[in-house]
């Protein structure tokens, strides 16, 4: 055994962990119905891979190898505990499933069942997020705790309770039937997008939080591949990729948020944008437009403008108007206001913002105050803009955004000192 | 699995005679469907909370007081015990009960023996 073999094996196990963890766990839950057993045996299978692969070589189908090892571990454990009649039944099921399943093709892909179960609406939202990261993405309890700024003990308790509820309240392990599929799929995609946004709107350089973006994209990829008849998961994947392509230019060296108009577009990832375009085109070809496809089209439109002044604001404003119909929320309206302000002038945008503010639904939302402030500044109404910037500052929790707002506040309080737009 | 559906609603909700007749009709249809599917184990309606009596024993003293355990906006007015395959089926059964439109149906699994 030499160093390079070890390095190859390490790389192969890491790759297998990324690609296969969720599948191994999902399959084991499907076979045993026992979530803890499934996680433990998956963990043991990966540990075994680190021991066996250097000598035996990396298997042709790592996923099949890992699933077989994990299944055999589960079988051993259940046999040892098979005093109860119910457990004996599991052993029979497992042993039957074992026949001839060395080939990866014959192992069912249960990840879709696992995704829908993790994101069941009977679970609290924070538990859905945590379960998805633990069982599908393979993040450790400690990593998830760090990403969501809670102690490891709190996160462990959250996961235990969620698994308890799945078992004791009878949450089924299945893809929902067609009558409830649209609403459940919406809920599932919302969890994945929330995960992505948790990573995207990170404050500071916490690596574990940034990794959430990559995990969310990976899971969206799996979902889109497993539900090819549904356009929205592919739309969601395209949306995430468009955002991700712009990520390197979103925060400058000092950690300050760089707005879309000020971003260095040469740093956007052209390959990722091209991939997102392909996904979006495929989704739109279904002819069933939904919120994620529309949001992806908007994000894509920004990505296609080589310079900020090339942005097709009129078409973006139209897309937002469409989005506002299928997803009539004040936040969408607020974004439409920004697009309209760019297409038809700040006055037109401000009119929409004021009507949202009058509605009261977004009271206390920092981006409402920040958007209002920016529009007032562009109209040269500096005194009112200063009040709005101060309000936004008192409401934001993001350090990067705070820096941006303080700089803009400085510009309207001392208009002579800076000439940036 | 066995679940209890607890029907919570505003017991002072004033329905017009037509609305009341419609709710009674929906309820009859629901019972017919669920009995037909073999879902309902047992179910009943409760007298209003104005007629509730609560009992506690403290220091070996029986304390009796009138009124419900907790004053809430929605009161429990009835229940059904159902036997279904999973929480998803329990949700489906609950969503078809007329109280789901007027108030809230709470779905609780039984403690397994």
From TrEMBL, chain A:
<dbReference type="InterPro" id="IPR036388">
    <property type="entry name" value="WH-like_DNA-bd_sf"/>
</dbReference>
<dbReference type="GO" id="GO:0016987">
    <property type="term" value="F:sigma factor activity"/>
</dbReference>
<dbReference type="Pfam" id="PF20239">
    <property type="entry name" value="DUF6596"/>
</dbReference>
<dbReference type="InterPro" id="IPR013325">
    <property type="entry name" value="RNA_pol_sigma_r2"/>
</dbReference>
<dbReference type="InterPro" id="IPR046531">
    <property type="entry name" value="DUF6596"/>
</dbReference>
<keyword id="KW-0805">Transcription regulation</keyword>
<dbReference type="InterPro" id="IPR007627">
    <property type="entry name" value="RNA_pol_sigma70_r2"/>
</dbReference>
<dbReference type="InterPro" id="IPR013324">
    <property type="entry name" value="RNA_pol_sigma_r3/r4-like"/>
</dbReference>
<dbReference type="GO" id="GO:0003677">
    <property type="term" value="F:DNA binding"/>
</dbReference>
<dbReference type="InterPro" id="IPR013249">
    <property type="entry name" value="RNA_pol_sigma70_r4_t2"/>
</dbReference>
<dbReference type="InterPro" id="IPR014284">
    <property type="entry name" value="RNA_pol_sigma-70_dom"/>
</dbReference>
<keyword id="KW-0731">Sigma factor</keyword>
<protein>
    <submittedName>
        <fullName>RNA polymerase subunit sigma-24</fullName>
    </submittedName>
</protein>
<keyword id="KW-0804">Transcription</keyword>
<dbReference type="GO" id="GO:0006352">
    <property type="term" value="P:DNA-templated transcription initiation"/>
</dbReference>
<dbReference type="Pfam" id="PF08281">
    <property type="entry name" value="Sigma70_r4_2"/>
</dbReference>
<feature type="domain" description="RNA polymerase sigma factor 70 region 4 type 2">
    <location>
        <begin position="115"/>
        <end position="166"/>
    </location>
</feature>
<comment type="similarity">
    <text>Belongs to the sigma-70 factor family. ECF subfamily.</text>
</comment>
<dbReference type="Pfam" id="PF04542">
    <property type="entry name" value="Sigma70_r2"/>
</dbReference>
<feature type="domain" description="DUF6596">
    <location>
        <begin position="184"/>
        <end position="283"/>
    </location>
</feature>
<feature type="domain" description="RNA polymerase sigma-70 region 2">
    <location>
        <begin position="23"/>
        <end position="82"/>
    </location>
</feature>
Automatic annotation (TrEMBL), chain B:
<dbReference type="InterPro" id="IPR011008">
    <property type="entry name" value="Dimeric_a/b-barrel"/>
</dbReference>
<dbReference type="Pfam" id="PF03795">
    <property type="entry name" value="YCII"/>
</dbReference>
<protein>
    <recommendedName>
        <fullName>YCII-related domain-containing protein</fullName>
    </recommendedName>
</protein>
<comment type="similarity">
    <text>Belongs to the YciI family.</text>
</comment>
<dbReference type="InterPro" id="IPR005545">
    <property type="entry name" value="YCII"/>
</dbReference>
<feature type="domain" description="YCII-related">
    <location>
        <begin position="1"/>
        <end position="112"/>
    </location>
</feature>
């Amino acid at each position: 055994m030499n160093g390079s073999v070890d390095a190859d094996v390490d790389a192969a196990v890491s790759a297998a962990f990324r690609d296969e963890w969720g599948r191994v766990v999902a399959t084991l839950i499907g076979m045993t119905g026992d979530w803890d057993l499934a996680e433990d045996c998956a963990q043991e299978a990966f540990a075994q891979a680190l021991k066996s692969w250097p000598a035996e070589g990396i298997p042709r189908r790592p996923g099949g190898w890992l699933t077989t090892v994990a299944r055999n571990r589960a079988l051993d454990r259940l046999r040892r505990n098979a005093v109860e009649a119910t457990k004996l039944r599991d052993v029979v099921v497992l042993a039957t499933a074992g026949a001839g399943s060395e080939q990866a093709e014959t192992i069912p892909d249960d990840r879709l069942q696992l995704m829908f179960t993790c994101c069941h609406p009977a679970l609290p939202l924070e538990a859905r997020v945590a379960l998805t990261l633990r069982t599908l993405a393979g993040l450790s309890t400690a990593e998830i705790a760090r990403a969501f700024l809670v102690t490891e003990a709190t996160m462990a308790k959250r996961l235990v309770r969620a698994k308890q509820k799945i078992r004791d309240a009878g949450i089924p392990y299945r893809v929902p039937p067609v009558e409830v599929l649209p609403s459940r799929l919406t809920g599932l995609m919302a969890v994945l997008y929330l995960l992505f946004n948790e990573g995207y709107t990170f404050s500071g350089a916490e690596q574990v939080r940034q990794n959430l973006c990559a995990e969310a994209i990976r899971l969206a990829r799996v979902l889109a591949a497993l539900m090819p008849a549904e356009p929205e998961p592919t739309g969601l994947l395209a949306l995430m990729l468009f955002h991700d392509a712009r990520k390197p230019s979103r925060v400058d060296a000092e950690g300050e948020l760089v707005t879309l108009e000020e971003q260095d577009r040469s740093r956007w990832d052209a390959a990722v944008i091209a991939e997102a375009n392909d996904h979006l085109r495929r989704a739109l070809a279904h002819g069933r437009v939904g919120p994620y496809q529309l949001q992806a089209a908007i994000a894509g439109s920004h990505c296609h403008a080589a310079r900020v002044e090339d942005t097709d604001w009129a078409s973006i404003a139209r897309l937002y108007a469409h989005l506002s119909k299928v997803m009539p929320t004040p936040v969408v309206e607020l974004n439409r206001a920004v697009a309209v302000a760019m297409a038809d002038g700040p006055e037109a945008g401000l009119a929409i913002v004021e009507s949202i503010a009058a509605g009261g639904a977004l009271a206390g939302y920092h981006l409402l105050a920040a958007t209002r402030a920016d529009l007032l500044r562009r109209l040269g109404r500096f005194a009112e803009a200063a009040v709005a910037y101060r309000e936004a500052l008192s409401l934001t929790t993001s350090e990067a955004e705070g820096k941006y707002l303080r700089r803009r506040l400085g510009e309207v309080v001392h208009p002579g000192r800076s000439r940036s737009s | 699995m066995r679940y209890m559906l607890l029907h919570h609603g505003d017991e002072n909700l004033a329905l017009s005679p037509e609305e009341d007749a419609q709710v009674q009709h929906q309820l009859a249809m629901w019972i017919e469907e669920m009995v037909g599917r073999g879902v309902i184990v047992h179910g009943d309606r409760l007298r209003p909370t104005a007629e509730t009596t609560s009992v506690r024993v403290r220091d070996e003293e029986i304390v009796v007081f009138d009124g419900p355990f907790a004053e809430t906006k929605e009161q429990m007015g009835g229940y059904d015990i159902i036997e279904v395959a999973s929480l998803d089926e329990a949700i489906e059964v609950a969503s078809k009960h007329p109280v789901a439109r007027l108030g809230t149906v709470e779905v609780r699994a039984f403690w397994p023996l």
